[in-house]
Amino acid sequence: MNQLMIFLGPPGAGKGTQAVTLCEERQLTQLSTGDMLRGHVKSGSDLGKQAKILMDKGELVPDDLIVAMVGSELEKYEANSIRILFDGFPRTTAQAEALDQLLAKHEAELETVLLLEVEEEELVQRLLGRAQEQGRSDDNEETIRNRMKVYSSQTQPLIAYYKGTGKLKRVNGLGSMEEVAQRIKITLS
Ligand code: AMP
Q1: Which stretches in the chain have pLDDT values below 50?
Q2: Which one, out of 52, 153, 184, 189, has a CA that is 20 to 30 A from the CA of 60?
């Protein structure tokens, strides 16, 4: 059976961490466009070279490249067995519309869009902490502030987009990993 969900929320909200737990619980595959792009950067592919410049500035990678990447991922699934949790995708209205078209093509439907909410100052502090732990090249303060701006201007409109579908569910992302995981579980039950 298909099951498709989206994890929406600002950078540093804990989408990646919570996605791991949720995917285990529901036998979903986590599809993180950020992780896929970092894979391309690491392998030195043309896409990786193009993406790195934008990622290091906290800018978004062009929609057509992202949509092509996700589209080819969806091709790997047999009919009626697509089980995906999208993490960090879609990030723009154009990507959300393209996802609608891809899903229509695969006769699949979104079930839930989970919005993980955390206020900006807390996010910046978390991301600065992560910078020290993981050394991600886009986790410096200037890039972090820009990623927040990009989120507000380009990704936040998706909240209204999905609210309109009746599929949006909000979860407070403040607290320990376990507390947030529990809230998600209750919200989805
Ligand atoms: P993330 O790991 O999701 O925070 O993504 C890290 C960076 O990868 C972002 O700041 C963007 O530069 C790029 N990226 C990831 N996902 C997308 C997407 N869906 N659309 C455009 N750019 C993306």
Answers
A1: none
A2: 184
